[in-house]
Amino acid sequence: MNLGKKVVYQIYPKSFYDSNNDGLGDIRGIIEKIDYLAKLNIDFIWFNPFFVSPQYDNGYDIADYRKIDPKFGTMEDFEELSAKLKEHNIGIMLDMVFNHCSTEHEWFKKALAGDPKYQAYFYLRDPKPDGSLPNNWQSKFGGPAWAKFGDTGKYYLHLYAPQQADLDWHNPDVRQEAFDIVNFWRSKGVSGFRFDVLNVIGKDTVLVDSTDPVEEKKLYTDTPVVQEYIKELNANSFGQDAESITVGEMSSTTIENSIKYSNPDEHELSMVFSFHHLKVDYDNGEKWSLVPFDFKKLKQIMFDWQSGMDKGNGWQALFWNNHDQPWALNRFGDPVHYREKSAEMLATTTHLLRGTPYIYMGEELGMVDPSYKSMDNYVDIEAINAYDELVKTHTPEEAFKIVHSKARDNSRTPMHWDDSEYAGFSQSKPWLIPTDQDEINAEKELASGEIFDYYQKLIKLRKSEDVISDGHFSPLLEDDDQVFAYLRTLNDEKLAVFNNFYGKETEIDVPADLQASGHVLISNYGRQLDSLPAKLTLKPYESLAFKF
Ligand code: GLC
């Protein structure tokens, strides 16, 4: 499979389309919207988990990996969805959450009931001799990473919410469970898998105290054994299928490790998600802060990753948005003055890079963060915990402002289908309330907008232009503090891409070897040129891709 020719679309099932009007999206709703999806000419759809779950972390706390949660539909609905997508050559990518399971999973329940086989599935530890927690690790959602294991006197590890108990991958039975689950879905025709926070499965057997938060992550992230476990998973499940496509969500990873995870010679995964480029609007690494994004840093990180992965023959998932991020348009674009142009510029930047692009539902409409006015609108455990922490050191107004700009719920609001009260998502009050649907919605976008159309063009180009799908990467204009430019090359083909990240015009000096004739592949200002001049003026948020 040529991964460079593929484009993945991400659907957050809870928020895509509600067919039975209970306020929650469902699988039948997705079936009803297949024609819309097919218009984009995407190859795979990654679905966030719709398995049985008590939903403490919106489905990332799985209680039964082989069953569809009745809130979302039935196995028959899933099979129908899969068959209908297949008619449009769209494959399914399922979200496999194997670092942890729900504390309502039967494994955990059996463990709690005293079954030693299942107790060995989890990290159960005694308190320290002084009665304090087994170690000082913090949960990624705030608070300690340990919770009481019933009345046994022991504690279990949870790197995420207390309702998400970490599975001990050192136990071969746990690994076998993972293989079996992947194979269960393969037997249903699924060939795509996204593995949730996969690089934290290799915790040590001795869980020592950390000295600081940075060192703490290193104690359980990207440990060498992770590579071994992924190789095993590959050999025992999806690796047996030449058409499989896999992506590992890698938290705080490195280029070096990501090359190993995704270089085909290693027989691990097709590609990786890394997140460093989305931390450039964190103040000193702190997500819950408000600072403008650091453009130079963004560029440097993306250049380093593109060059490094190219050199090491690794493969990247290219993306700005997902269900864990506020909208990129609010962070790196200008949703007020240049919503369309900046949405297209951001899309151009990632879609013409080396890797496989991912589009998060609504991105093709130019979606923006909801204009919520109070904490009552948020449901995410992470946002609520963060607010509670922030108000200890900030005024409630400041704390709210930070949550408002950083919450994961920002991108989890219902898809805007039209401008009606609930955005055409449902007839009933949705689990998260949509806002601004009179301005941004699919009906309007398809009738008179330009962003959807622009995405269609970018996807088409990736399929027709080998320099985009297969070309090498090199940075251009590295010192420019406004323009993100790069060169893609394949044999004697060259593609130069220029993206103005700001709402003001700028003039660039085109490198001498690129002052040559060719044609514009795509431009968000409809620009025509038959050669690149020595000096090029880019309009606000202009993108220009020029092929030689
Ligand atoms: C991943 C998911 C996120 C979830 C976390 C714990 O980061 O994308 O939504 O909360 O893992 O499973």
Task: Write a brief structural summary.
With 548 residues, this protein is an alpha/beta fold. Helix content is 30%, strand content 17%. A hairpin with a 2-residue loop joins β17 and β18.
Secondary structure topology:
Elements: E1 8-11, H1 27-32, H2 34-39, E2 44-47, E3 51-52, E4 64-68, H3 75-87, E5 91-96, E6 100-102, H4 106-112, H5 116-119, E7 124-125, E8 146-148, E9 155-157, E10 164-166, H6 172-186, E11 192-195, H7 213-220, H8 224-236, E12 245-249, H9 255-262, E13 271-273, H10 295-311, E14 317-318, H11 328-332, H12 339-351, E15 356-360, H13 381-390, H14 396-406, H15 442-448, H16 451-464, H17 466-470, E16 472-476, E17 483-490, E18 493-500, E19 506-509, E20 519-523, E21 535-538, E22 543-547
Helix pairs in contact: 6-8, 9-10, 12-16, 13-14
The protein binds alpha-D-glucopyranose.
Notable features of this structure?
548 residues, alpha/beta, 17% strand, globular, binds alpha-D-glucopyranose
Folded structure, characterized:
By secondary structure, this protein is α/β, with parallel strands linked by helices. 30% of the residues lie in helices and 17% in strands. The chain is built from 17 helices and 22 strands. Strands 13-12-11-5-2-1-15-14 form an eight-stranded parallel β-sheet. Strands 16-17-18-22-20 form a five-stranded antiparallel β-sheet. A hairpin with a 2-residue loop joins strand 17 and strand 18. The chain is globular, with a radius of gyration of 23 Å. The protein starts with 7 loop residues before the first strand and ends with a strand. The model has no long low-confidence stretch (mean pLDDT 97). The structure holds alpha-D-glucopyranose. The site of alpha-D-glucopyranose (GLC) has 9 residues, from loops. The site of alpha-D-glucopyranose has 9 residues, from loops.
